[in-house]
Design brief:
With 282 residues, this protein is mostly helical. It has helices at residues 80-117, 123-148, 162-172, 175-187, 190-193, 197-200, 206-212, 221-235, 238-249, 254-264, 267-278, and strands spanning 15-17, 26-30, 57-61, 71-74, 151-152, 158-159. Strand 5 and strand 6 form a beta hairpin. Helix 1 (80-117) runs antiparallel to helix 8 (221-235), helix 3 (162-172) packs antiparallel against helix 10 and helix 8 runs parallel beside helix 9 (238-249). It starts with 14 loop residues before the first strand and ends with a helix.
């Protein structure tokens, strides 16, 4: 689908459609990500989300058949701009849910890391977990607000409040970075320096890893490494593409949201309110 407003010269690119991902003529060039060769060593701890996976790709369409009932825009360039604005608005609204869900997992993993490191009662650890929760729930509030303030369209569909949706996404470009920073702070440097699962299971050096990376009593070295690897994956590894970088650039860059906030902010009405209270007459 279009990603910008278009004019007459862009008519042949003003298309929006849906096809199966395995349709003939589609080529997906998978992006490379940090630490991806470690996934080839076998095991489970170092592969990220071993159940669902997740990759990004450059998708090439080369003579792909699209049925008529799957074509949503076909040369009507004059609608490209509003299509982008509304699609982006829904996408920016959704970040108040999806990134918050990831945040919940990261907060939980960080709290477990504090437990396994033996410092769950330290006041500064508690305060950082509170701050992580505060930031995460603030994002959720924005997602709920722009949804609840939605209005029906003539077609019967609902359009979210575009101003609040862009405010939601603008916060998402910032808060996950602080949440991730606090997670890394609490987890400690072992999050990125710990040996791999292959090393842990090695018959020669595995004993050293088991002995020297042991945390609190009652928690196995493997479980400690598992939770640290999860935090690494969410903040630096494969999943971080979807949490940090996607939080910044997904559904448009931060500047794109600021442009929409400027358009939707209705500064004129706010000036009128101030004039009324100050008893200023034009």
């Amino acid at each position: 689908m279009p990603t910008v407003a278009m004019g007459p010269d862009d008519k042949e690119f003003a298309v929006s459609f849906a096809v199966p991902t395995d349709a003939a003529g589609i080529t997906m060039i998978i992006g490379r990500q940090s630490c991806d060769t470690r996934k080839l060593e076998g095991g489970q701890i170092d592969v990220g989300n071993s159940e669902f996976g997740g990759v990004e790709a450059l998708v090439v369409f080369d003579d792909v058949f699209v049925p008529n009932d799957r074509i949503f825009l076909d040369g009507e360039y004059e609608f490209a701009g509003v299509l982008v604005e509304r699609f982006a608005g829904y996408h920016r609204q959704s970040y108040g849910g999806c990134k918050v869900g990831v945040g919940d997992v990261l907060i939980g993993a960080t709290a477990l890391a504090a437990d396994y490191n033996g410092v769950p009662k330290a006041s500064h650890i508690k305060d950082k977990l509170i701050e992580m929760t505060h930031l995460n729930e603030t994002l959720y509030c924005c997602g709920i607000a722009c949804s609840a303030e939605g209005t029906p369209t003539e077609s019967g569909n609902y359009i979210i409040d575009l101003l609040l949706a862009n405010v939601c996404k603008q916060n998402v470009t910032r808060f996950p970075y602080e949440i991730a920073r606090l997670a890394e702070d609490i987890a400690g440097g072992l999050m990125v320096t710990a040996p791999s699962e292959k090393d842990l299971n090695d018959p020669v050096i595995g004993g050293y890893v088991e002995k020297y990376l042991k945390g609190v009593e009652g928690v196995s070295t493997e479980n400690r490494l598992r939770i640290l690897r999860l935090i690494e994956n969410l903040t630096l590894g494969t999943a971080a593409v979807g949490y940090r970088t996607e939080s910044l650039h997904g559904a448009g860059s931060p500047q794109a949201q600021r442009i929409m906030i400027s358009r939707q902010g209705n500064i004129g009405r706010k000036k009128a309110l101030a004039k009324a209270i100050a008893k200023i007459e034009d």
